[in-house]
Design goal:
The protein has 5 helices and 7 strands, in the order H-E-H-E-E-H-E-H-E-H-E-E. By secondary structure, the chain is of the alpha/beta class. Strands 3-2-1-4-5-7-6 form a 7-stranded mixed beta sheet, with helices on both faces. Helix 4 runs parallel beside helix 5. The termini are far apart. The mean pLDDT is 95. The structure holds S-adenosylmethionine.
Length: 194
């Protein structure tokens, strides 16, 4: 039983691309009420349900309160874009590193489409800073955005640090919404001078 229907989008994407594997460390940005974290806990075995497989880690972050979940560590009332949150993540992650960053974050809609889109893209751009601090080389980032003019800028930024970037529109996402996901894989830490 999932806390919200958004779980089906992540299940669909993960069934196809196998991002979440037993033993992996996952950061779930914009995690409330916790449905994506439920999927992640199951797939990385962070509650230790399968004693034969390695046990992963799931850390969820949200501005709102996230009700407790076995196998997940939640940072409720935390802003993903705030560098002090990044520092806490470094402490909580085994070895200070994550295999996967998930983001289903969305700002409160103002009703002005372009403004909301820009706000979400700006939030997504900060995820590349977070990636630089915590993502393992070879790691992945899945992030929701709203399609519009600035989406190109985000795609370019992702393409400069990930080996592959693709655009996903899960079947479980409403056809009439501008919501899409970037799946960026094979993270390369920006080297000196780049
Ligand atoms: N994936 C979640 C699930 O399956 O339960 C649903 C996420 S909901 C669509 C988007 C969430 O992003 C909201 O709970 C909102 O509070 C959160 N959010 C928006 N801006 C944020 C920020 N700067 N830092 C942390 N969370 C944020």
């Amino acid at each position: 039983n999932f806390r919200c229907r958004s779980a089906f989008k992540l299940l669909e994407i993960d069934d196809k691309f196998r991002l979440l594997r037993p033993g992996y460390s996952v950061v779930d940005c914009g995690a409330a009420p916790g449905a994506w974290s439920q999927v992640a806990v199951e797939r990385v075995n962070s509650a230790g349900e399968d004693p034969e497989s390695p046990q992963g880690t799931v850390i969820g972050i949200d501005l709102l309160n996230i009700p407790p979940l076995d196998g997940a560590h939640f940072l409720s009332c935390h802003d993903v874009t705030d560098p002090t949150t990044h520092a806490k993540l470094l402490d909580l992650l085994p070895g200070g590193q994550a295999h996967v960053i998930l983001s289903d974050m969305a700002p409160n809609a103002s009703g002005f489409r372009d403004m909301d889109q820009e706000k979400l893209i700006t939030m997504c751009l900060t995820l590349t800073d977070l990636a630089e601090r915590i993502l393992k080389p070879g790691g992945s980032l899945l992030c929701k955005y709203w399609d519009g003019i600035l989406a190109n800028k985000l795609q370019e930024r992702l393409s400069s640090v990930f080996g592959s970037v693709r655009i996903l529109k899960p079947n479980a996402s409403r056809k009439d919404s501008a919501e899409k996901y970037f799946l960026a894989r094979v993270y390369r830490k920006p080297g000196k001078g780049s």
